[in-house]
Amino acid sequence: MKAELVFNDLSLLEADSTETARGWFTDAFSAVAELIAQNICNPVLNAEQDLYSILLTDDYGFIEWLDELDYQDDLRLLAQQITTKTPVHEHLKVIDENIDDFCRSEFFIKAIPEQICNALGVALICDGISLSFPSQPQWYQSAFIEIVQVLYGTELEVEKTLSHRVRSVSKVEHVNFVVRDWRRSVSEKIDNTDELLKCWKAAFPYLDLCCEYENKFLPVLAGETLKSVRKRLKELDNDCHRWAVEETAEISYSMRARPDSTGTMKNSELANMRLATCPNNGKQHFVMHCDIQPKGYRLYWFEDKAKKRLTIGYAGSHLKTLQFKAQ
């Protein structure tokens, strides 16, 4: 699963010099390169015009910028691979549930109420990421652009007016902000086990799933249990991300997480209930756990301290311990 990349045509302005134009191209496509490196986007840009036709001065555009780069430059190699799909709204036709919202709407820049921004509307409706040149403060000061959606009814009456924040990159420093926000959005849309498996790597990049998940994990995931597990997975993924960034020896959990007792784990019968196969570490005991819904249910995982990752091993009713008989 990948995010759509949509070019914000409002950022396409005339640069005051070749040097400025060169900087805009380098900033914007360095951000694209980082998105692709993080496996968030494909090298496809939805835009109103082809990249090779873009000019930022009378005689300096995408082609001239490419020609200045060394032939073995990673940025040049990536930029050459980018395909442009035009016009920008065409790909929405395959998103059946969303295309009507686009056709019935007008989109405006919140800070400039009269400025229509259809490309940003496309990025919003497809839950994607917009790409801007850093040509004005509103395109480079934040990783989000505030827009207003005016949704019309069947009689062209205004049905409602909604405010949104559209993810936007124009510099590399925006990338991590929009990536975390996109992953959050993906996780919140998971409403069944098929979606969970399809979106797992996109939504929870720091978490792995045990090889026996069909028996130990998926059967109980429905209704309030799925919602509860989804919430816990996002919390654990955030904890893991912080663990990796801060480079601490031990992970710090944002929920009440605890290991099973030593006595329970010394009992072979009880320990085997917590045994599953990690994709990177083979057979392991899943000792750490937290509460999920309904009351009495638990989510178990294994800590990989070398890779700073977690493998989810079990979700379901309370497992038997020395003090507790399983339900």
Explain what this protein looks like in three dimensions:
This protein folds into 2 domains: 5-179, no CATH class; 191-317, no CATH class. It has helices spanning 18-37, 62-68, 74-81, 96-103, 118-125, 137-140, 175-188, 193-203, 213-216, 223-246, 262-266, 268-272; strands at residues 5-7, 44-46, 83-85, 105-109, 112-116, 129-131, 144-152, 158-169, 207-209, 258-259, 275-278, 282-285, 288-292, 297-304, 309-317. The strands form 4 sheets. Strands 1-6-8-7-4-5 form a 6-stranded mixed sheet. With 327 residues, it is of the alpha/beta class. It contains 12 helices and 15 strands. Helix content is 36%, strand content 24%. It is elongated. The relative contact order is 0.11.
Output the radius of gyration: 24 Å
Give the strand order, joined by hyphens, for the main sheet.
1-6-8-7-4-5
How many separate helices? 12
Straight-line N-to-C gap: 37 Å
Largest sheet: 6 strands, mixed
Number of domains: 2
Class of secondary structure makeup: alpha/beta
